[in-house]
Amino acid sequence: MTRHHTNQPNRRAFMAGLGFSLFLASTTSLTRPLLAQDVETFAFDFDSFSERMKALAAAEHAALTVDMPAAFQNLDYDAYRMIQYRGDASKWADDAAGYRLQAFHMGWLYNEPVKVFEIENGSARPLDFGAEDFTYHDAAVGDAAATGPFPGVAGLRVNYPLNSADNPLDELVTFLGASYFRALGRNNIYGASARGLALNSWIDVAEEFPRFSEFYVEKPVPGAPLVVYAALESPSLTGAYRFAITPAGDASQPSVMDVTARLYFRTDVKELGVAPLTSMFLYAEANRGGFDDYRPQVHDSNGLLVERESGEVMWRALNNSAWLGNSYLAETNPKAFGLYQRGRDFEAYQDAGAHYERRPSIRVEPVGQWGQGMVRLIEIPAKLEADDNIVAYWIPAEPALAGQEREYNYRLVWGDLDPEDRPDLAYVAETRAGVGGVSGVENEASLRKFVVDFKGGELETLPAGTPIDVLATVGGGTMRNSVLSRIDANGAWRLVMDVEAEPGATLELKAYLIGLGKKLTETWLYQWRPAA
Q1: How far apart are CA 477 and CA 479, in angstroms?
Q2: Are 192 and 278 in contact (CB under 8 A)?
Q3: 441-478 burial by CB neighbour count: b if 16+ within 10 A, else e?
């Protein structure tokens, strides 16, 4: 059950980024290199790049055709992992900035080429990759690569000495598959992912998966962010993206991306998902009864955090039930939202290979006023940790229509993002659930027990006897009993609630603590979907 990690994406990462490759084959569009020029170098700036993408949106969308050499057409997961980029072939290997650019080979699920350009002093030139840049551990595949046409590259990654100045091989960021990308903070390993855009995810029309078709990377400058531009293409729209990536430094554990997304719509879009995040939640203390596994918890993220314009912080604990879950959290100008991994102790997971305690949280911080809309959380039923089953993104209230242009600016923060860093507000440390009622006797099947532990903030230093009130609401059921007490063993304040569910109803739960004339904790949210 343990997953091991190398500098190649693992099986779940492949499925997360490209599990929809069969669908993509019929929906992506490039009959030619999108922006490639016939000259060796050409002028490049973001505004001109954006105008080119806008002009492309006015043209008819055409299906992509790829002539993949036979030797690479039928690679399976294991065969693909045997093709590795050579470290000594890294671009910028001799530069003082510390970055190393590498590429991913085409093959297996990655059957769509991308173009990569380097920008220096305002001029762009194509970066060439060939079979000589890769090690082929399968002799037959290596012979085919040496004698036949090189199929191209499917994505890129950038290494940087995140954890040690002596090691330039730490992965900082990877762009691979559709518009998926991932990054790391210090001492993290890959977990949750981000995407350029989500279109019509899990609604009553076909989902569309835009892809980054070309990348323009500014040659790094010591001490400055790494800047990457990406061309987004899909049947419904085009886009011009700018990523300014600041790696974790001596005084900062997280890595930061400042993102500008300029979108140009060919057609109406029924549901536009901005700044989408994807992760995996299999089980934790609230639902582990359905998994026969030695590990206490298995997840890359265990909660959706939303920081509202008012300053209220909401923690929606994740769930994995028998059928699809949808939560829509209406917001106006949210300060932030993200998928978080809380729990940095190995003992909580007991997985010496996957090390879930090292998976990064991802926080989206909108820049400027995003107006009215909602944060949507999708929870897809999953039986295996190879399935990325959690999706979250922002849906603007105004529908996206053909001919429109939109720009979204936001910051992505990748790292531990521990709640202890915020001393003014207690956080949700754990969510548990089980059979309701009193232990040792038979209880009504409709009764469910929910246990929420709050830690930190002013709860840690409240004088003995300070009155604390519980504000809790239940949709789809009735609160039968609730008890709040302090756990001396770990200092947490534990809220225990017995809730009676209405027949066939989905429970929507909300709770927080108040005292000293103010709110003392995050707002805990949970959706429980009983088995049919």
Answers
A1: 7
A2: yes
A3: eeeeebbbbbbbbbbbbbbeebeeeeebebebebebbe
Residue 248 neighbours by CB under 8 Å, 6+ apart: 162, 184, 185, 186, 254, 255, 415
Pairing assessment for the beta strands 523-528 and 313-317 based on DSSP bridges: parallel
Q: How far apart are CA 127 and CA 322, in angstroms?
A: 47
Q: Is 345 exposed, middle or buried (0-12, 13-18, 19+ CB in 10 A)?
A: exposed
* Sequence-separated (6 or more) residues with CB below 8 Å from residue 216: 44, 49, 117, 118, 119, 124, 228, 229, 230
DSSP-derived secondary structure for 62-93: --------GGGTT--HHHHHTEEE-GGG-BTT
pLDDT in tens, 438-467: 877 777 878 999 999 999 999 998 988 899
Instruction: Let me know if 340 is exposed, middle or buried by CB neighbors in 10 A (0-12, 13-18, 19+).
Output: buried
105 strand-pairing partners: 153
Closest Cα partner for 337 from 276, 248, 379, 426? 276
CA angle 486, 314, 412 (to 5 degrees): 125
**What's the token pair of residue 458?**
């002013």
Cα gap 495→479, rounded to integer Å: 13
| Mean confidence (pLDDT) of the chain | 90
Give the contacts of 488 (CB within 8 A, at least 6 positions apart).
Answer: none
Q: Quick one: tokens of 8?
A: 């190649």
Say if CB 324 and CB 378 are below 8 A apart.
yes
Per-residue pLDDT tens digits for 376-428: 999 999 999 999 999 999 999 999 999 999 999 999 999 999 997 778 899 99
CA atoms within a 13 Å half-sphere pointing along the CA-CB vector of 95: 15
Write out pLDDT tens, residues 280-332.
999 999 999 889 999 999 999 999 999 999 999 999 999 999 999 999 999 99
Confidence (pTM): 0.92
Distances (CA, A) of 140 to 70, 81, 103, 136, 314: 12, 14, 21, 9, 54
Cβ neighbours, 10 Å, residue 99: 25
Comparing CA positions, the residue from 447, 509, 513, 452 lying closest to residue 481 is 447
Cβ contact 176:154 at 8 Å? yes
Structure tokens at 188: 């993290």
